[in-house]
């Protein structure tokens, strides 16, 4: 294996850790601000497009998707695609307004939306959240979380297992996304976001958008190494819904503990009673 690449990678990783991950944390804050500004300025259009599903109900209702999963009661239509397609469309079409340079690097796994800016590789997943879902957590697969980015003797990046601590049990979780890339000897951090699209159910199909929340989950190096937020702010990662026997277990990321690291990490956008666009935090 190319020892030069392993040494360069280890030097870059040490440089990040020695500076308490400042290079990554500042990029997370910068990208969050750019995305939140753009989502807020487009919020009326986003809500209009989202709520359009009800206005066109006669056209799709006969062949609508049916509820699956946890205790379906037939009182609402699955709204995952409505949230995903509306938010994805608005985000992709606004990328050139937010960043100087945009690429779409091919990798075989990660979040729904992926793009590279001049400084970072960004992953964003949209989570539609109805009245029977928990608005205070997101369930994440291993390939949606970055880890501590170790490198093997053969020059392969891997992540160590981390603890998911619940009130009664602790389970292991292994993130699968690399925390950064080294390209032309430049550190390109991998940033992961969720957008929770929270809707009401008035009647089946009449499921208007209530708010969206942009969530910035810390990169694996600040989260698990330096400053090690996972240790400093307990309760962020808790066991998911998977059985003990499942191999690649998911984790629940709890949003209230997460927002204690920095209130900007969870920001909601909604229309208030005067029809004004409001941005608010959890703390
Ligand atoms: Ca999704």
Q: Which stretches of 5+ consecutive residues score pLDDT under 50?
A: none
Portion in strands: 25-35%
CATH superfamily: Restriction endonuclease BglI
How large is the radius of gyration?
20 Å
Q: Class in CATH?
A: Alpha Beta
| SSE order, one letter for each helix or strand | HHHHHEEEEEEEEEEHHEEHEE
How many angstroms does the end-to-end distance come to?
Answer: 48 Å
Major β-sheet annotation: 7 strands, mixed
In the CATH hierarchy, the architecture is: 3-Layer(aba) Sandwich
Outline, from the CA principal axes? globular
Number of strands: 14
Which cofactor or ligand species appear?
A: calcium ion
- Tell me the number of structural domains: 1
> What's the mean pLDDT score?
94
- Helix proportion range: 25-40%
What is the helix tally? 8
Assign the structural class, choosing from mainly alpha, mainly beta, alpha/beta, alpha+beta, or little secondary structure: alpha+beta
Summed up:
With 283 residues, this protein is of the alpha+beta class. The chain has eight helices and 14 strands.
Please give the structural blueprint.
Elements: H1 3-18, H2 22-41, H3 43-55, H4 57-60, H5 80-98, E1 113-116, E2 121-129, E3 137-140, E4 150-151, E5 157-158, E6 162-165, E7 170-173, E8 180-183, E9 186-199, E10 209-217, H6 220-224, H7 229-232, E11 237-239, E12 251-254, H8 255-261, E13 266-271, E14 277-281
Bound molecules: calcium ion.
Characterization of this structure:
The protein has 283 residues and is α+β, with helices and mostly antiparallel strands. The chain has one domain: Restriction endonuclease BglI (ECO RV Endonuclease, Chain A). Helix content is 31%, strand content 26%. The chain is built from 8 helices and 14 strands. The protein has helices at residues 3-18, 22-41, 43-55, 57-60, 80-98, 220-224, 229-232, 255-261; strands at residues 113-116, 121-129, 137-140, 150-151, 157-158, 162-165, 170-173, 180-183, 186-199, 209-217, 237-239, 251-254, 266-271, 277-281. Strands 1, 2, 8, 9, 10, 13 and 14 form a 7-stranded mixed β-sheet that branches. Helix 2 packs across helix 5 (80-98) and helix 3 (43-55) runs antiparallel to helix 5. The structure holds calcium ion. Calcium ion binds at residues 84, 112, 125-127.
């Amino acid at each position: 294996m190319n020892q030069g690449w392993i040494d360069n990678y280890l030097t870059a990783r040490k440089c990040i850790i020695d500076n308490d991950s400042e290079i990554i944390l500042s990029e997370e804050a910068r990208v969050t601000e750019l995305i939140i500004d753009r989502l807020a300025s487009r919020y009326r259009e986003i809500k209009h497009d989202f709520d359009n599903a009800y206005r066109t109900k006669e056209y799709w209702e006969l062949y609508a998707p049916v509820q699956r999963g946890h205790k379906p009661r037939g009182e609402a239509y699955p709204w995952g695609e409505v949230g995903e397609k509306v938010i994805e469309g608005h985000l992709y079409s606004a990328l050139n307004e937010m960043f100087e340079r945009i690429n779409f690097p091919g990798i075989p796994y990660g979040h729904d939306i992926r793009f590279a800016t001049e400084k970072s590789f960004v992953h964003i997943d949209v989570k539609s959240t109805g009245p029977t879902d928990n608005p205070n957590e997101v369930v994440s697969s291993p390939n949606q979380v970055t880890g501590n980015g170790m490198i093997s003797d053969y020059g392969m990046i891997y992540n160590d297992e981390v603890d998911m601590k619940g009130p009664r049990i602790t389970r292991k979780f292994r993130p699968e996304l690399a925390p950064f890339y080294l390209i032309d000897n430049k550190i390109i951090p991998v940033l992961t976001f969720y957008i929770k699209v929270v809707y009401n159910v008035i009647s089946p199909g009449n499921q208007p958008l209530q708010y969206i929340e942009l969530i910035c989950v810390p990169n694996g190096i600040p989260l698990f190494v330096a400053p090690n937020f996972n240790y400093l702010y307990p309760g962020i990662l808790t066991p998911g819904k998977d059985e003990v026997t499942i191999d690649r277990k998911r984790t629940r990321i709890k949003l209230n503990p997460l927002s204690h690291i920095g209130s900007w990490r969870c920001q909601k956008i909604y229309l208030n009673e005067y029809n004004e666009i409001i941005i608010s935090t959890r703390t």
